[in-house]
User: Fold this.
Amino acid sequence: MDDGYSGSDFERPAFQMMLEDIKQGVVDCVVVKDLSRFGREYIDSGMYIERLFPALGMRFIAVNDGYDSLDRKDSSDDIIIPFKNLINDAYCRDISVKIRSHLEVKRRNGEFIGSFAAYGYRKKVDDRHKLETGIYAAGVVRDIFRMKLHGISQDAIANQLNESGILPPAEYKASIGSNYQTGFKVKEKSEWTSVAVRRILSNEIYIGNLVQGRQTTPNHKVKQAYLKEESDWVRIEKNHEPVVSDRDFEVVQRLLAMDTRTAPGNGEVYPLSGLVVCGGCGMPMVRKTTKSGDKAYSYYICATNKATKECSPHSIATDKLESAVLELLRKHIGNIMDLQRVLAFIGTVPFQQMDMKKLEERKAEMQAEAERCTEP
Assistant:
């Protein structure tokens, strides 16, 4: 008996226990209600019934199908049994196609079909296919985005969450009674990690976008899933209440795309991390710190020159570079402010021109009226 397992899979636990008993000689006869109860996979069913069982001297009986391998009335069973197995296989295939089609319709309608909602959300009580924010977890997600926007690395964020006693996703789901299981758990009690933090920071579900159908299997017989092309994903934008704003999410994605790794023991990201590149080879520059007496000096050097010497040596002091960048930012902001003033002035020009045109027309009318009145 294998409740909850598909008949198309012969790796069912109880079925494998039965095979082991057969090999050990504990049983010498297998009885099933009908062939579909034995299995719904055409190739493997035939292999067991026609090859393995006869080789082991096993008797096989399918009651409703009137089949008994020990008392075969005629040779027609050799043709009928494979056909019945093929029909049982086709039934599974047909059900699989219908289920896939039904789930695809639900995805395109914006219905959530996952077993568990993402951290920060929960399924609505009145509609299990709709998501709503959870007060506790959604607050943690906002804190994670806020810390990242303040320049804190993923590893440092994870450490802060662990030190604060914040429940990680797996433990949180268990605390609310969810039967969530994961293969990523390596300790008795899971903890926040930089990978888990990054997974949250890069998930667009937190801006209200529902993305489903990332993975699929070739067919109902092959259980190995593979990642589909992103163009084939089902993305429904603004499907549910967002946790963070679009702007914060976009800024965080830009930060994640940069090399913002931190030195051991340092939780904050340097202001120019991931932004400094060599003008000669275009590769990122590495921040180095040296000490001279009681003072520490930091500077950026070319990563290519440091590794292979294929680029000429380039270096610049950190304080000089940051001062230059700050000055450029001030000038850029000033230019933008001037540009805004110019645009605001230009916006009033058409109205001023219209006023001048009206005055000219009125002047011409008044002059014509004056000439008419002065005529003899």
About this structure: The first strand starts at residue 29 and ends at 32. The chain has a mean pLDDT of 84.
